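Okay, is this right?
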Amino acid sequence: MTRVLLTGMSGTGKSSVIAELRRRGFAAIDMDEPGWSVRDAEGNQLWCEERLREALAAEHVGPVFVSGCAENQVKFYPQFSHIVLMSAPADVLMERLASRTDNHYGKRPDELAEVLHHLESVEPLLRRSATHEIVTTMPLDRVVAAVLSLAQTSDPGPTRGSDRTSALDGTRRASTRRRIR
């Protein structure tokens, strides 16, 4: 079964892609939705590991898509066929965060500063573990088409299974990564 992780900074369109995939009938989990994540004592987002393990182990018809970005996501990398970094330039992220109505994160100055800091500090680490990168400055339907195209391929790209290591500690760098614009 094909499992695709969509990861990246706030404002890159992960939740919008997941919503569209659901609308089209695919199994799609947004880890930012209630019940899928918790905050640790330092305020870092952590995925509810047992719940996600159960969801990934369940039988599904067709691919399964998961979106999110959390401190413990690396634990699940071996279970994904594709790890897709969704990215966008800082000015695009700032505009999206300011204008979105379905999620208030990123509207306060301290939250926006955190997103921009993560863009510089965390996104490069995620890029190292990604098998693919989609630059989400194109229309949503094209982003979804790119994601669906990846889900139809059996080749996960340069890193695979248990060979993947933490994007957060940056210990493995993909020699090649497919970038879609």
